[in-house]
Structure formats: C-alpha cells, structure tokens
Amino acid sequence: MIINRTLPNNSVSILSKLSNTGIDVISSVYALIIWLISYPYFTWGSQIPTLGLMVLFLITFVRTRIDKKIVPLIPIFAFLYFWMSCRGPFSFIGGVFVFFNWLVFILDKRTLDSSFKKYKSIFSLTIVPSLLVFVLIVCGCDFPFHSISPLNPLKQGSYRVYPFLVMYEGIEGFLMPRFNGYYDEPGLLGTISAILLITDKFNLRKLENWPILISGILSLSLFFFVMSGIYFLLFAGKKYLLLVVLILFVAVPIAANIPYIKVAFLTRFEFENGKLAGDNRSQGDYDVWFKQYAMSSESLIGKGGDAAMEHNKGGASYKDLIVVYGWLFFIGYCIFFMLYCYKVSSGFVNFCICSVVYLCLIYQRPSLSDYFYVFLLCGASRSMRSVGH
C-alpha cells in the first residue's frame, strides 16, 4: 500500500499563514526592542537596553537561518567581534554583549527584513508627537517639563523632558534649538532619518516617510543633509539632480539671509583649518597625534582599551576604531561588510548605495560595538529595494 504523505492544499495554506503570523509577531517584538535600545530618553540610566539585548539574542537563536550567499562571511564576522570584545574598553559582561553582535548576520532574512520595516514604522509613528510638541514650544507655547541628567556624562547641563521630547539646556540648546526628538543628540536623529529614507529611496508617496523627512530637516544634522545630497546627486536620477541644483543655487542663497538658519546650519558648511566647521568628530590635537600614530607599527593591531578616549575625549571619529582595534581590523571590517552588502543587496546600484551609507555612518558614528547600528546597517542592506526614478 502506498501512503500519500502530501498535505492537502488547505493544510499547506494554514501552515503558511501560521508561519507568516509567527514571523510577524516575532519581528514586531524585535522591532520594538530595537527602538528601545536606541536609547530614547525614558531608558536613560535604566536596565531596559540591557534586558532588551538579551531578548534580541534569544530571538536570534530561535530565528537563526544562515543565507547560503553569506556562509563564508559568518566566521569572519564572529572573529571580528571576538577581537572587538577582547580589545575594546569593555567589562567582561560588556565584552560578551559586544561579541554577540555578530548574530545579526545569521538572523533569518525574512525576520530581519520584516523587523527593519516595522522599526521604521515605530520610529515614524513615535516621532510625530515629538514634532508637534517641538513646533508648539518653538512657537511660544508652554508645556510642563522636568529636568534629567544627560545620557553622556561628558555633557554639561541637563535636558528638559517634555511629552515624547527632550531639549538640551546647555549653551548650544539655547543658541541653536535643533530638534532631537526623544534622543540626546540631533545628530543621532538625523542619522537614523537619513538611513531610513535612503533605504526606501525617499519614497514620499508613503505617508510614514514624511515625519522622518521633517525630523531629519529640523535636526539640522550635517550627516542628514550630506547623505541626502550624495544620494540625490549620485543615485536618484536627472530630475532630482535638477532639484538639487535649484536648491543649491536658489534656496540656499535665500536661506543665508535668515539669521537662525545661517548660524545654526549654513555656517557648519564653512571650511576652518582645512575641514568643515560642522565636522566635530575629533577634539583638540587628536588629528595631529593620529597622523603620527597611523604610521607606527602599533597601529596595525591597535592600542586597545580606553586609548581613543584618552586622546579624543568627547569626540567620536572613525579614527577611534583604528586607535583601539588597529588598521587590520578596520580595513578588514570595511571590506567584508561591503562584501556582505554585495551579497545581500539586489543590484549593483543598491550595493553602491549600501556601501556609501556604511562608509558615511562609520565616519559619523563609528559604533560597530552597538547592536542598534549593526541592525541598521544589516537591515538597510537587506531591505534596499529597486525603485525607478
């Protein structure tokens, strides 16, 4: 007797729906935790990010499914993060958390793609009340607030906490009221906004992209405008290139006559001492010291520990990665991550966009030890879609 083991069509359909529902639930939880570990103000000083990371690691173990195209890269990334965990300025527990960052690369691609899209929706939805409160405060409305200490202990002053909004009470906050939403820095908000919009090819037919765009603009983030400009100049097509030209030669000269925009934004594009005035990634004589260090044999494997903090206190430069982990790590990570982008992105243009995003992010926020940024990079690479312009 021959037993037919083929499932009926309705059973296959039910199993498929259950599978999709499971992925949907898991990715929703994953996306929410990703949002929490990006450090909105109500998580400062709490254990929420640490507990969130533990749940993310657990989800990754449950949803592990290695893409055949990147199998050779997995042990390489595992080694690179092992190197980071051993050489970086981390405690034992901190080093364990850093090491497990490589698990993002083995997360099931459907779960990663779905989580990235859901995170974008969460970000867009939650930034709307921040925008509304910010606009009302700038227009002179009074809101109750309380003060909290900064997330970064090197910062002076404190933050005013409004409903879904924080505003820095330091000198910079009074002179340049830039929008930073529920984050401690407008640069972080601008970085997230740029990556999410570029990943979706600035598709403004989607309603959820409008709050992200407005947030990026109001943050006056140098990264946001530079990245957006690079995208439109290189990848967006001729009609958008014409728009960029009109903005540069018509809108910018007009905006230069508005004192607030001139002081808070346009002066950051002026060159001082051979670099952009808004490029504050390194402090003091760090650049001079780095030139000498970069030519030494010690720079191959890095100084390890708190070396970057000792020489660049208060700064955040890609050079910090070289100082701590060395040239071999830095070059290796760049090569293998761009190879990862090439393997998972659809088409050569998308690969180029992902590579530019990665290089600019490393320049702006060299936080490869931060799970949130690794997720952004991997999620953007996976979610990049082809859109005709």
Task: Give a structural overview.
The protein is built from 17 helices and five strands. Helices cover 60% and strands 4% of the residues. 36% of the residues are buried. Helix 5 (109-138) crosses helix 8 and helix 7 (186-199) runs parallel beside helix 9 (222-234). Strands 1-2-3 form a three-stranded antiparallel β-sheet. With 389 residues, the protein is mainly α. The chain has helices at residues 9-36, 48-62, 74-87, 92-99, 109-138, 171-175, 186-199, 209-219, 222-234, 238-255, 259-264, 286-294, 307-311, 318-325, 327-344, 348-364, 371-383; strands spanning 146-148, 159-162, 165-168, 271-272, 275-276. The radius of gyration is 22 Å and the shape is globular.
How would you summarize this macromolecular structure in one to three sentences?
The protein has about 400 residues and is mainly alpha-helical. The chain is built from 17 helices and five strands.
Can you tag this structure with a few keywords?
389 residues; mainly alpha; three-stranded antiparallel beta sheet; two-stranded antiparallel ribbon; 5 strands; globular; disordered N terminus
How many individual β-strands? 5
Rg, alpha carbons: 22 Å
Strand content: under 5%
Q: Give helix and strand order, one letter per element, not per position.
A: HHHHHEEEHHHHHHEEHHHHHH
Structural class: mainly alpha
How are strands sequenced across the largest beta sheet? 1-2-3
The biggest sheet, with number of strands, parallel, antiparallel or mixed sense and barrel status, is:
3 strands, antiparallel
What is the typical, i.e. mean, pLDDT? 82
- Binned, the helix content reads 55-70%
Number of helices: 17
Shape: globular
Low-confidence stretches: 1-7, 11-18
Q: What is the CA–CA distance across the termini?
A: 60 Å
